[in-house]
Amino acid sequence: MLRPGKLSWVREIVNGSRRGLLSFLAGEGEGVINIAGHRQWIVIEETPVHLGGARPWFRCPRCSRLAAKIYGSPRAGGPAFTCRSCKRIAYPSQNEDKRYLSVRRAQRIRERLGGSPNLTLSFPPKPKGMHWTTYDRAHATAMALEQRSLASMAATVEKIRRRCAARAERLIVSPQEGAKTQRQR
Fold this sequence. Notes:
The protein is α+β, with helices and mostly antiparallel strands. Helices cover 36% and strands 25% of the residues. It has helices at 84-87, 101-112, 132-171, 175-184; strands at residues 7-14, 17-26, 30-35, 38-48, 54-59, 66-67, 71-72, 81-82. The protein has a six-stranded antiparallel β-sheet with strand order 1-2-3-4-5-6, with no helix packed on it. The protein has a two-stranded antiparallel sheet with strand order 7-8. α2 (101-112) runs antiparallel to α3 (132-171). The longest helix has 40 residues, at 132-171.
């Protein structure tokens, strides 16, 4: 938690060795990040929370957006620590192939119902305490997502099959065609 005067330390350990040491000292409305001797001042703003209190946010030094986390490492020529948007850091789901999106969503539904994410196993039974309408809706959604993923996989397999057939057709030359091409040379 960010409080004025509180010093926070973070150590990054990679393969058993200490790679970097970061310290953050929060002041009133600002903070200083110190990593490997590089210091950067960061503005901290607070927004009110629904049931009282306040939530601290970092103000990105590059774009002035409020951010819960800032990312980066020291470098020359500009702010080292900026928000996710300025660093162009994507969430893993943003880099995921769209063909597997429905598979992942169906697996998440199965896990939420207490079952295995494996789509080849039977669908999990209704958990105790869950309404039948909620279970039926989750079951229908999962089945639709599984059908969509199977259709996508079938289209991919068909595309690969056509490519292989075309490649095999080019490689296999009948004796008569081979003789024609040799005569033409």
